[in-house]
Amino acid sequence: MALERHELRHWDGRRLFVYGELRGSLASEGHADEGGATGEPASEGGRDLHQRLDRLTGDWIAISPARNVRPHLPDESSPGPGPSADGGAACPFCPGGAEVPFPYDAAVFENRFPSFVEAPPLVATDPRVSPSQGRCEVVLYTSRHDASLGTLQPEELARLLAIWRDRSAALWADDRHRCVMVFENRGALVGATIAHPHGQVYAFDRLPPRIAARATALEAGRAATGRCATCDVIADDLAEPARRVIDVDGFSVAVPFAAHFPFEVHVRARRHGAGRLADLDAAELRSLGAALRAVALRYDALFGFELPYMMVALEAPAGVPDWHLAFEFLPIHRTAQLLKIRASVETATGLFINDTLPEASAASLRALVVAAAIEVDVPAISEAAAPGRR
Ligand SMILES: [Zn+2]
Ligand SMILES: [Zn+2]
Prior knowledge:
Blueprint lengths: L1 E8 L5 E5 L12 H5 L13 E5 L4 E5 L42 E5 L18 E2 L3 E7 L13 H19 L6 E8 L11 E7 L4 H17 L3 H11 L4 E5 L2 E4 L10 E5 L12 H21 L6 E6 L11 E5 L13 H6 L8 H10 L12 E4 L7
Parallel strand pairs: 1-15
Antiparallel strand pairs: 1-2, 2-5, 3-4, 3-6, 5-7, 7-9, 8-9, 8-13, 10-11, 11-12, 12-14, 13-14
One zinc ion binds next to helix 4.
């Protein structure tokens, strides 16, 4: 059963992909393509986007002034499900909101406040500056405001996996991109300004520093041992049950040996060659869905509240054969009350100090009783001939 993808354009040129049945249109449809197809920076302040080289570290820093005006959560509560009838704060991600003004099942749109855009403003001829080439997309997991990664219905989770595969494959296929990252910031503590269940996809025109460092480490591992270092890590994860969180075919689900964060969990493809979402077969996709759901449910059960976390899908950059696809969960809590704050030493040096024993964290997560596993069958995507497209 294929899942249809409809491509639409907002009045400001930003793409909107609706997955499944199309139940409405954008007011601007028809004339949007003329201006929109150029990919002009969509947001206010988009013309200030650029990257700067820190010559003392070799790192590139993305300068994105418009992000300072993006919406923030009120102190006490986030916008409720919307659209709001009473004039109160309504959720812009709910059906009928600013981003998808009609009913939908799941959707992806280009971020109103991007740090990287398809057609970035030109920059001066200066080796310290470069255009902010890339993409920033937002993935709406479901129209249900109160859902979460752990509580998606089987068909919603299957659709989400299909959407991640579809968007990441499309962005990897663009040769301007050297790195694509699907991720989710869940909770205000890690910067999610809107409570509606959503994640994001970024595409970068160069390998970000830690991604480049990993690629280099894998190359060095291969040179030193003749083997894939990731295969070795997975063999250790499977051989050391004290760090294992759950058992799933096709993936290792464990607190890593050298965890940076107290309750960090890595969900890593076991099969050598499964470097990207697009490489997974149907059985592996089923396992991935089960694993992600199991981890999210355990986080929610850990302290009795929806644990904020960062979740990043790390896919293999081109030419890095020893990189296995991994979803890495990075929650910042040490206990129900205490947060892991990266203070002077860790921020300045990049050295992490983990105040917990990874084996103890894994034991806590493993012991939790959560809802039973579900089975997902991830659909293939088919492109619909949407009205309003070229
Ligand atoms: Zn909502
Ligand atoms: Zn391997």
